[in-house]
Amino acid sequence: MSFQPSSKSVTLQDVAKAAGVSLITASRALSNPEIVSKATIERVQQAVEATGYIPNLLAGNLKSRRSMTVGALVPIISVPQFLPTIQTLTEELDRAGYQLVLGQTGYDHAREAALLNTMVGRRVDGIVVAGLLETTGASERLRKLGIPVVETWDLSDRPMDMLVGFSHVRVGSAVAGFFLGMGWRRVGGAT
Fold first, then answer.
1. What is d(CA 156, CA 103) in angstroms, rounded to the nearest whole number?
2. pLDDT tens for residues 112-136?
3. Cβ neighbours for 140, distance < 8 A, ≥ 6 positions apart
4. Do residues 18 and 50 make contact, with C-beta atoms less than 8 angstroms apart?
5. Segment holding 126, helix H or strand E
6. What residues contact residue 7 under an 8 Å CB cut-off, 6+ apart?
7. How confident is the model over 79-97, as pLDDT tens digits?
8. Using an 8 Å Cβ cutoff, are 160 and 131 in contact?
9. pTM for the whole thing?
């Protein structure tokens, strides 16, 4: 099976031609393999490899109305506390067939709004935020569009949608209570 690459993107039509099947058969072999013979699936897969075909996910998203992506916003990626959250999100979403798209806000509300607009424009299926979202035009669009949002790492009496967090005030109070209970009065200071 030989294929002459051109300067344009490889299409499913190119895959079908290289595999010697119809366009609909190539499409079915990739999206509904259970209804196509094993030999045909193998030919189409070989054509995909030979042509370097990458499916147009935007076109598929229009049909299914799902992007199979979830956006995540973190203030700063290098903060060690956020890394396990991002790693676990990536792994669990991957198991469910989703990809994570990560944005770093830098604690900048304008950047947060721009990232949210980009994610909405890319039609993410949901958004996870480390912290609480600022109420902006972008966050209001999320609400109007019904895009699920999970805010984390904080608490609010009025979450945007879903909230998984903890009270920093209560954590600080518990730590101070522990220190006082141990009889420590000059924590971090000279002894």
1. 22
2. 999 998 998 888 999 999 988 887 7
3. none
4. yes
5. strand 126-130
6. none
7. 888 899 999 999 999 999 8
8. no
9. 0.64
